[in-house]
Amino acid sequence: MMTRLFAVLLALMVTLMMAGTALAQDAVAPDPAAPEEIVSSPTNAVSVEPVARDEQIERRIREILQATNWYENPGVEVDDGIVFLDGIAKTDEHKVWARNLAQKTQDVVAVVNRIEVQQEIQSSFAPAVRELKAVLWSAVLALPHILLAIIILPLAWFGAKWISRGARVMLRGRIESPFLRDVVSRAIAVPVFLIGLYIVLQVAGLTRLAVSFLGGAGVIGIVIGFAFRDIAENFLASLLLSMRRPFKGGDFIDVAGEQGIVQSMNTRSTILLSVEGNHIQIPNSAIFKSTIINYSAAPARRSALDIGVGYDVSTAAAQEVVRGVLGRHEAVMGDPEPLVLVDSLGASTVNLKVYYWIDGHRYSTLKVKSALLRLVKKALIDAGISMPDEAREVIFPQGVPVLQLEGRAEATARDLAEHDIAETARAEAQAPESEADATVAEGDLANERADIEAQTASAGTIEGSTDLLDDKA
């Protein structure tokens, strides 16, 4: 890319120098063919006699027109100082010249120019050959400037390239972002190339032409800037994000309504890989303007559980049971300590809110929550603490009618006793709850980041662009 750009600049410089030399040398370029006639108006009045008569004026003007050999059948008539010109001229300049001649002749009052212009049809290649020779001569005159441009421009180009590399190495320890280092190093190297370009233009005499060209290029740049405003905005946003670095590759973030692991960032967008395995491209300008939640910035993450216990049990005892489960679990951090707080009084339960902290870099929030709910349920059941479901209340405005048939009282009592015995037996027959910190279904409680990063590695980088978040760049 850079080599092609340099070749285009060099070709443009050569074209500009040849054009400038041609413009400067047009008036003095030698012509091997017959030189073109230079038509100019007479500068002084043509005198005949102190008081010229009409026939004298007519004779004098006709002699001059015939002497030029520019006109066919030139005719001149003079009546009371008014000159009438007739004949055929080859160019408009010759017609105007004849009129000016008559006007500047002594004692001429007015001129009526009736000369017709009939241009010659060029039936040879002489004009084309003449122009071609003029171009070749201009090229010969511009040859020293071209050789100078061929020598200076490559030197300026490579000098700017070496300075850019040196600046990139010097800034490696001062600027963390590789993208910002590249932009700053290029900005430092640009004046070197511009100095070489200025020297070539100055020697070639094209400084004024170059200023006009650059001014037009500036106007075009403004127009293009408005047309590609979004692209420029995303580029500047990527530059600012590289400076501020609110996230890095592999971080799990929430931005612009999307969640995922940061895969890469280019000059246009940032690419996230969602937990579902989808690639999400978000424009950098939208990211820069949005609130960014970086879940990977700090390892400690707080989570919560909701547990309801019955009104017939000791709330303090239930809190201690739950605290004991959290304190024994390997994934729950001891500092800060877990909290088991009474959150609200429900219709049939006392609702507890449990807060605890885990290492988000090592453990999965969802897996740890599943394991804790399972273990808390078992501990509460073992402690004889009930966890009733929501109560359903039925209102009878007229009261509840009770009908008792003869001989049914004993049967009703017997049925209730049998039902209680069956419920107790069914409860005792339930499979024992696992006391392990994690079951097979819950996995090893590890963070899902490794699985998503494996998908990231297999997916590759979108658009094949350079990752601006890569610190090795």
Please tell me about this protein's structure.
This protein is an alpha+beta fold and 473 residues long. The protein has 4 domains: 2-16 and 126-226, no CATH class; 54-117, Histidine-containing Protein, Chain: A, CATH 3.30.1340.30; 234-297 and 457-464, SH3 type barrels, CATH 2.30.30.60; 299-391 and 435-442, Alpha-Beta Plaits. Helices cover 49% and strands 16% of the residues. It is built from 12 helices and 12 strands. Strands 8-7-6-5-9 form a 5-stranded antiparallel beta sheet. A hairpin with a 3-residue loop joins strand 11 and strand 12 (349-359). Helix 1 packs across helix 4 (126-170), helix 4 (126-170) packs antiparallel against helix 5 and helix 9 (315-328) packs across helix 10 (365-382). Residues 23-36 have low confidence and may be disordered.
Mean pLDDT: 77
Global outline: elongated
Instruction: Assess the beta-strand content as a share of residues.
Output: 15-25%
Kindly report the spatial arrangement of strands forming the biggest sheet: 8-7-6-5-9
Secondary structure tally, helices: 12
The secondary-structure element order is HHEEHEEHHHHEEEEHEEHEEHHH
How many domains is the backbone divided into? 4
> Helix amount, in percent?
40-55%
Task: Work out the number of β strands.
Answer: 12
Structural class: alpha+beta
Radius of gyration in whole Å, from Cα?
49 Å
Low-confidence region ranges: 23-36
Give the biggest beta sheet: 5 strands, antiparallel
Q: How far is it from the N-terminal to the C-terminal residue, by CA?
A: 19 Å
